[in-house]
């Protein structure tokens, strides 16, 4: 709505023109300081010799140079690649399957849907606590199988340096796949039923109906799921802390845990800052084009 | 000096001028309709009168008071919106008195004014309901009540009937007209419906592309459209516009057309305005309303110049009261409006009676009426 | 959540349907199992957990683990139980939720009904703040909280959650108000209502659903937060999630799994309750956060 901006406007009109901007400005100021100012500050720190406290000795790219020569950082990056790709693919696959199946006029949908979705309401710390124990070979699933007489059953991934990262995937998928289901289900329910009827009259089989007609229409849901999941994956911190503590050793370290431990426990603030900058850049590479497209469409 | 002066007003968004030098004086008690297709600038103009949009240049005055920059609530205007814009969380009564409350009118007076308006519009039984519980016609009445209660200098209507179904729209149209006649208020009314414009207004401003194409009484607009746009926009079915040539035959000007058979048809023009002379032997556009083309028995008895024209009938469309007959003239469809019992058959030749008193000519290049 | 479609055009055979039900039930089991087993084992004596089957129901029902987790378990150095931390989380979440919702509502109102040149850019700036990895602000935030002398306190956490919640709440209210008819605002202007009167009398009374969404989303996020809690409020001011993590990972003494489970369920209870009571709004919040309308 256009505010009247004629010159010579009366006081009330001028006040009404300024009030909205006045109301918005604290938020803008907060954003500029606490988000963009802080980002700038962290970027600046990543070029300094900060250790336990911020210090302002300029060291250029040295922190980045060192960062990529730290083994733990490279482990964290590899883990992130494994974790993010599996987490996104599996959550999407499960979410989509559940949504398609739930969309078949299922009896008890009202009961099943909340069951699929409730983990999203939990803290990652709670999820981690539950799964940590469930996957613990001594008392969890493996022990139960042994008690049931399946003596040869082993499932000790959480203690295994090679496999521990996959337990993080399992717990994360458990938490988020119901949410992906909800997104796809909303997409499916939004498809015009007459299109489906038309396609059936055209003789399309169920398989073709989904492959050729329905899935292409879910494109926005796929995109949203990808963006949200990748964003969650890069930020993942709590779950790893609660589930494995980053271990065994640093086998399940992720960039988020790396940043925290280098900044606050190892007193390598410069390195910590540079790792945070890398995380920001990665997320920005995904989010900025997405947000830009979304906002542009709106206009 | 009018009651509401729109004085050389323009509107620009950035570098784009969307309204070009609009100049209209509205007298007290007038019912001015702004009509035009969507995007013509009519709603923008109305919003500028209301103070909801700024004025880029020019002046708007109400009762000689300059309104530029005056807050909408200080202009003593009231507006009825297309969606009615009833506050969903308030009862009908609250909706009607909200404006009075905002202007600091004491509660007993608000109550009294509300009762009067409710009685006038016959919505007394609805006062305690929420807008969500009302039918479209009832909402329309409440929206009008909200405008009336303020007793404003000028009423602004923004396509108020376009959300109603066809029958209700006709009823409400009559109601609005009655209300105007009874209260004698000044109204500016925006619509894209040319029938609403014709029936309601005392004057019409036909707008297109940010320009006022023509400002005049309904009769002026209908009978003497200023240009081809006005001619074809006003009237349903639209005025027939046929490429023709002006030629002098037997000492009189004739409009020469081509029949369906490829042969020429000449229609004599009487009392030709002097301007026609300049177009002798030049192409023109002949504009003629469907009701000016009839069967010979149905022709207007008061017409002075009826010309006969025989041509092949393409289609007939009986529409109850009238029958619409289509023929091809100069390569264009030409529609005639006849009595229901006219003896016309598609595929056959028929003798049409054309009332040339009502014919108008347009310049094919400027599209302006030749006069 | 979308309403069930009245008729799905797709037809499936009996065998396919049997398979679909099996698939759905297996996954229901998958989602229920970890939390369900945690629940069962939180009312067992410790001996039954370490020596027995996790799926078996308790032979001796006991609420001792719950009592212990609530009031006597060792958190860090003090045997206070989780109770003070539960209260910390409430004291932190409620003000932060209210503040961020109020500001978000006003922002959304301005950004949709009082548009001005450059408002989309401001919205973009606000929106991007929802998606930054918070690691990028940890270091300067620690400094600022220190300077403001609210480091390690609940007011400090309220500030942090308020600041980083504005983006989300603005997004919610903006999308909601975008669909709110602008003609109503114009009508109110002509009626003489001002900026705040329109907001208070016209917009807010119709904002119930989106206020619910904003409250629930913010509450869930703030209650479940761990990173800020761990970074800025260790010790007495720690929120529930941090305290739970301390409880579970304390290395001293015997691991009292049943107490851990009881604690975990306590930490989950408020958000689960919100989910059960107002699941519809919870899902809408998730959607609004993902599909930027």
TrEMBL record, chain A:
GO biological process, one term: transmembrane transport
KW Membrane (keyword) present: yes
Assigned protein family: Belongs to the binding-protein-dependent transport system permease family.
The species this protein was found in: Roseicyclus persicicus
Topology class, membrane: Multi-pass membrane protein
Origin: domain of life: Bacteria
Keywords: Cell membrane, Membrane, Transmembrane, Transmembrane helix, Transport
The keyword Transmembrane is assigned to this record: yes
Residues covered by the ABC transmembrane type-1 domain: 77-292
SUPFAM superfamilies given in the database record: MetI-like
Location(s) in or outside the cell: Cell membrane
Residue stretches spanning the membrane: 22-47, 80-103, 115-135, 163-188, 269-293
InterPro entries: ABC_transporter_permease, MetI-like, MetI-like_sf
Listed name of the protein: Sugar ABC transporter permease
UniProtKB/TrEMBL annotation, chain B:
One GO cellular component term: ATP-binding cassette (ABC) transporter complex, substrate-binding subunit-containing
InterPro entries: AAA+_ATPase (IPR003593), ABC_transporter-like_ATP-bd (IPR003439), ABC_transporter-like_CS (IPR017871), ABC_transpr_MalK-like (IPR015855), ABC_transpr_MalK/UgpC-like (IPR047641), Mo/tungstate-bd_C_term_dom (IPR008995), NA-bd_OB-fold (IPR012340), OB_MalK-like (IPR040582)
NCBIfam families assigned: PRK11650.1
SUPFAM superfamilies referenced in this protein's UniProt entry, alphabetically: MOP-like, P-loop containing nucleoside triphosphate hydrolases
Gene Ontology biological-process annotations: carbohydrate transport
Pfam families xref list: ABC_tran, OB_MalK
The keyword 4Fe-4S is assigned to this record: no
Family note: Belongs to the ABC transporter superfamily.
Lineage: Bacteria, Pseudomonadati, Pseudomonadota, Alphaproteobacteria, Rhodobacterales
A single GO molecular function term of this UniProt record: ABC-type transporter activity
Organism this protein belongs to: Roseicyclus persicicus
ABC transporter domain mapped to chain residues: 4-234
Keyword annotations of the record: ATP-binding, Nucleotide-binding, Transport
Name by which UniProt lists this protein: ABC transporter ATP-binding protein
Keyword field contains Nucleotide-binding: yes
SMART domains: AAA (SM00382)
TrEMBL record, chain C:
Pfam families to which the protein is assigned, alphabetical: BPD_transp_1
The UniProt record lists the keyword Oxidoreductase: no
Domain called ABC transmembrane type-1: residue spans: 86-278
SUPFAM superfamilies attached to this UniProt entry: MetI-like
GO CC, any one term: plasma membrane
Example GO biological process: transmembrane transport
Main location: membrane
TM stretches of this protein: 18-40, 85-109, 121-145, 157-177, 198-219, 259-283
InterPro entries named in the record: MetI-like (IPR000515), MetI-like_sf (IPR035906)
Membrane topology of the entry: Multi-pass membrane protein
Keyword line: Membrane, Transmembrane, Transmembrane helix, Transport
Keyword Transmembrane carried by entry: yes
Cellular localization per UniProt: Cell membrane
PANTHER family reported in the protein's UniProt record: ABC TRANSPORTER PERMEASE PROTEIN (PTHR43879), GLUCOSE IMPORT SYSTEM PERMEASE PROTEIN GLCU (PTHR43879:SF1)
Homology family: Belongs to the binding-protein-dependent transport system permease family.
UniProt-recorded name of the protein: Carbohydrate ABC transporter permease
Lineage: Bacteria, Pseudomonadati, Pseudomonadota, Alphaproteobacteria, Rhodobacterales
């Amino acid at each position: 709505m256009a505010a009247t901006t004629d010159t010579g406007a009366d006081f009330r009109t001028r006040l009404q023109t300024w009030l909205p901007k006045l109301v918005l400005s604290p938020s803008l100021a907060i954003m500029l300081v606490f988000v963009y100012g802080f980002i700038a500050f962290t970027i600046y720190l990543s070029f300094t010799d900060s250790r336990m406290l911020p210090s302002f000795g300029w060291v250029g790219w040295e922190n980045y140079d060192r960062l990529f020569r730290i083994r733990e950082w490279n482990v964290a990056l590899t883990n992130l690649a494994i974790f993010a790709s599996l987490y996104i693919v599996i959550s999407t696959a499960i979410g989509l399957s559940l949504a398609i199946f739930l969309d078949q006029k299922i009896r008890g949908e009202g009961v099943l849907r909340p069951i699929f979705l409730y983990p999203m309401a939990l803290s990652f710390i709670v999820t981690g606590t539950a799964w940590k124990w469930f996957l613990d070979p001594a008392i969890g699933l493996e022990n139960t199988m042994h008690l049931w007489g399946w003596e040869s059953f082993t499932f000790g991934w959480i203690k295994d340096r090679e496999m521990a990262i996959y337990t993080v995937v399992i717990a994360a998928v458990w938490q988020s796949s119901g949410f992906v289901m909800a997104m796809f289900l909303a997409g499916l329910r939004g498809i015009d039923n007459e299109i489906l009827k038309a396609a059936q009259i055209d003789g399309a089989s169920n398989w073709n109906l989904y492959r050729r007609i329905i899935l292409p229409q879910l494109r926005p849901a796929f995109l949203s799921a990808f963006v949200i999941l990748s964003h969650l994956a890069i930020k993942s911190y709590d779950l790893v802390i609660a589930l494995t503590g980053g271990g065994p050793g640093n086998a399940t370290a992720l960039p988020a845990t790396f940043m925290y431990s280098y900044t606050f426990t190892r007193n390598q603030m410069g390195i910590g800052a540079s790792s945070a900058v890398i995380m920001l850049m990665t997320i920005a590479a995904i989010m900025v084009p997405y947000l830009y497209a979304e906002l542009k469409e709106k206009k | 000096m009018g009651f509401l002066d729109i004085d050389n007003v323009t509107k620009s968004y950035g570098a784009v001028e969307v309204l070009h030098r609009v100049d209209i004086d509205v007298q007290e008690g007038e019912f001015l309709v702004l009509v035009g297709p969507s995007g013509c600038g009519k709603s923008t103009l109305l919003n500028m009168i209301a103070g909801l949009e700024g004025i880029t240049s020019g002046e708007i005055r109400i009762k000689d008071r300059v309104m530029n920059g005056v807050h909408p609530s200080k202009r003593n205007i009231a507006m009825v919106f297309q969606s009615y814009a009833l506050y969903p969380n308030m009862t009908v009564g609250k909706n009607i008195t909200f404006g009075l409350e905002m202007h600091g009118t004491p509660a007993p007076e608000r109550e009294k004014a509300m009762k009067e308006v409710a009685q006038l519009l016959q919505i007394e039984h609805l006062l305690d309901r929420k807008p969500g519980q009302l039918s479209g016609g009832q909402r329309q009445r409440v929206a009008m009540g909200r405008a009336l209660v303020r007793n404003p200098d000028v009423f602004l209507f923004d396509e108020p009937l376009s959300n109603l179904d066809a029958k209700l729209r006709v009823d409400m149209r009559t109601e609005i007209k009655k209300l105007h006649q009874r209260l004698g208020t000044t109204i500016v009314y925006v619509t894209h419906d040319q029938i609403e414009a014709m029936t309601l207004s005392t004057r019409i401003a036909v707008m297109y592309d940010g320009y006022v194409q023509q400002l005049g009484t309904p009769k002026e607009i209908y009978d003497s459209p200023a240009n081809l746009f006005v001619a074809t926009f006003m009237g349903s079915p639209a005025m027939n516009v046929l490429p023709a040539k002006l030629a002098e035959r037997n000492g009189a000007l004739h409009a020469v057309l081509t029949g369906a058979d490829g042969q020429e048809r000449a229609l004599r023009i009487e009392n030709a305005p002097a301007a026609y002379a300049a177009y002798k032997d030049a192409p023109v556009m002949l504009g003629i309303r469907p009701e000016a083309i009839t069967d010979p028995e149905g022709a207007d008895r008061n017409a002075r110049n009826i010309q006969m024209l025989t041509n092949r009938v393409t289609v007939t469309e009986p529409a109850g009261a009238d029958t619409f007959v289509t023929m091809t003239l100069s390569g264009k469809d030409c529609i005639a409006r006849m009595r229901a019992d006219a003896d016309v058959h598609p595929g056959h030749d028929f003798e049409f009676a054309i009332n040339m008193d009502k014919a108008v000519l347009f310049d094919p290049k400027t599209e302006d009426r030749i006069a | 959540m979308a309403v069930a479609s009245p008729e799905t055009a797709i037809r499936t055979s009996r065998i396919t349907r049997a398979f679909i039900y099996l698939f759905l039930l297996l996954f229901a089991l998958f989602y229920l199992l970890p939390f369900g087993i945690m629940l069962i084992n939180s009312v067992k004596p410790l001996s039954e957990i370490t020596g027995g089957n996790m799926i078996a129901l308790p032979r001796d029902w006991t609420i001792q683990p719950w009592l212990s987790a609530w009031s006597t378990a060792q958190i860090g150095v003090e045997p206070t139980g989780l109770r003070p931390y539960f209260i910390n989380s409430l004291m932190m979440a409620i003000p932060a939720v209210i503040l961020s919702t109020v500001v978000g509502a006003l922002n959304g109102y301005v950004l949709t009904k009082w548009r001005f040149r450059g408002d989309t850019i401001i919205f973009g700036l606000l929106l991007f703040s929802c998606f930054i990895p918070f690691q990028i602000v940890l270091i300067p935030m620690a400094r600022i909280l220190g300077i403001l002398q609210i480091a390690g306190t609940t007011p400090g956490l309220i500030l942090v959650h308020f600041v980083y919640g504005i983006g989300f709440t603005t997004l919610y209210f903006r999308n909601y108000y975008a669909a709110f008819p602008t003609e109503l605002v114009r009508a109110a202007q002509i009626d003489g209502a001002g900026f705040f009167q329109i907001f208070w009398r016209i917009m807010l009374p119709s904002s119930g659903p989106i206020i619910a969404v904003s409250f629930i989303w913010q509450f869930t996020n703030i209650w479940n937060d761990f990173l800020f809690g761990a970074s800025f409020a260790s010790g007495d001011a720690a929120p529930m999630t941090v305290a739970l993590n301390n409880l579970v990972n304390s290395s001293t003494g015997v691991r009292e799994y049943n107490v851990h489970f009881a604690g975990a369920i306590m930490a989950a209870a408020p958000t689960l309750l919100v989910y059960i009571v107002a699941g519809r709004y919870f899902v809408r919040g998730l959607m609004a956060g993902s599909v930027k309308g």
